[in-house]
Amino acid sequence: MTGIQLKNVTKRYQENEFETIALNDVSLTIEAGEFVAIIGPSGSGKSTFLSIAGALLQATEGEVFINEQNITHLNEKELSAVRLKQIGFILQTSNLIPYLTALDQLLVVKRMNGSVTKEDKIFATELLNDLGLEKKRNKFPNECSGGERQRIAIARAFMNDPAIILADEPTASLDTNRAHEVVKLMANEVKARQKAAVMVTHDERMLDYCDRVYRIEDGILKEETNLI
Amino acid sequence: MFLALKELIHSKGRFIMIGLIIVLISWLVFILSGLGTGLSDLAAGTLKRAEANAVVFEEGADMSISKSMLSESISDDLLRQKGVSDTAPISTFSTSIRKSGTSEESGKKTDAILIGIEPGSFIEPTSTEGKNLTDDAADQVLVDSSLKNDGFAIGDTLALSGSTEKLTIGGFTDHQTLNHQPAIFVNLDQFRTIRYAAPGSDNGIEDIVNGILVQGKDVDLNELTKADEHIEAGSKKAAVNAVPGYSAENATITMMLWFLMIISAFILGVFFYVLTNQKTQQFGVLKAIGGSNGFIIRSVISQVFVLSLISVLIGIGLTYLTTLFLPEAMPFHLEVPMVMIYSIVLLLISLISSLFSVVKIAKIDPLTALGRVE
Ligand SMILES: Nc1ncnc2c1ncn2[C@@H]1O[C@H](COP(=O)(O)OP(=O)(O)O)[C@@H](O)[C@H]1O
Ligand SMILES: [Mg+2]
After folding, report:
1. Mind telling me which residue stretches traverse the membrane in this protein (chain B) (predicted)?
2. What architecture is the A3-224 domain classified under in CATH?
3. For position B373, what pLDDT does the model report?
4. Nearest C-alpha neighbor of B142 from the set B151, B155, B132
């Protein structure tokens, strides 16, 4: 089963007379169970890539498939539904809702989709346990450390049982030990639950946990072979 | 609802401010409304409460009971008009009363309005204490309960200034005032004896009355005037509006109320907007993880609703508490239907004022969640 597939995707930004090519003819396929990293200097197009793969942004040219569904021509409402059902986002820091406990952070995903069942609660608890958050189940974000908060965000990304997981610099605000711990847990979950996962990172120490590494420069994506 | 309630409970502090504003606004609205009803009762309570559909006056009297004089016999002609089911004559006379036995010069006098009616006609209010009017005991009267505060009680004999006639309080009734004076309902025959004691003061009109109230499902005002050449007819509302001072007082209070509501809509709108603005990033995250506009807007609206509902309820509670401490002389009458109407209006106002925020939410780009700084 294919998780994400990009076919000749180009993204151009038009600003006054200037045109920026943020992604230049990018093609990439990530299968379920694969954990892929994308590295590159700032301004190279990483966020743009993630936004397009995550149904947040439309490509200028080319086609995007998520879980074998072509999302290239969907409208805003349909894209929102795709994000809800097929995509788990792990964003940078401070993306938790401040007034929800760890458990509720996960359950709100289910709320958006209708209602919360008993099974949902059991699943949420299981996810939190997998990520070593047994004791934080009923804690608010301000009662958790940075690493714990990022692990909650990871658990939330898995909550809707999506086809793909997208992470935007998930270790940006963590020290080395915490960063290793978080990425290791994320890799474990990706493998155990057979997701297609992409992590954008600045942090080359994290690449050991990934199956493949791509480098992006000026919008051009190339697989990195000599790193691993 | 889920997000709305969780946030209300978790971040009480920031909502108490807004809640407090809504409480104060609704408190003021209810107090003003009570004062408005109190004042308009004082001016025209008896007319407002009469279950009449129209009032007939002498032609040229400008719908004013005190200016009009006509014969009670017109009632029979009115009853023959289309749609008329019942009539009730009314006469009024402002006077002052004192307890019988005190002297005209030194005794304590109280202003009151004498209202002559047929006992048992539909304009007669039911007594809340004591007896209603009867045909037999002509000197027995039914009076407004505010006279209790002036020391009057059932069984007291009243002397009227400028008259030798004596009246006895047979019962009390509530909220019956006219021309800002407490009402004294008296048998119409007795009324005529008092009011038209001087020969010729009735202009020679037989069975004189000031006006005739008309009851009936679809009474046509034009049809009514065909009953007699020298009469004019108006709706009850027109008669109430013609009571001296009524329109002016009412317009003042109503204007204050609506200004208050409009101003509060803006204040609340700004507050809700600022609150929404502070949460742009949060809403962006919710959208990025798949929250629809509808989900987020519903949660914001339900939050505003719950907050406003609680605040308005507290406002109602405070208002009723306040009434316990209001001075007796203050005309204040809180009517439950009014409280309900204004509560709904207040709820609608806060919901409408949150619409600015709704527009803002719909525009938030889920990309903001990625924290991209351009
Ligand atoms: N909304 C936008 N409008 C115009 N240019 C943009 C916009 N977003 C990104 N860009 C440009 O596209 C390029 C890639 O940006 P981005 O994907 O954010 O890179 P990265 O995440 O790797 O730093 C940059 O040159 C950036 O200036
Ligand atoms: Mg970026």
Report:
1. 15-39, 255-275, 295-320, 340-362
2. 3-Layer(aba) Sandwich (3.40)
3. 43
4. B132
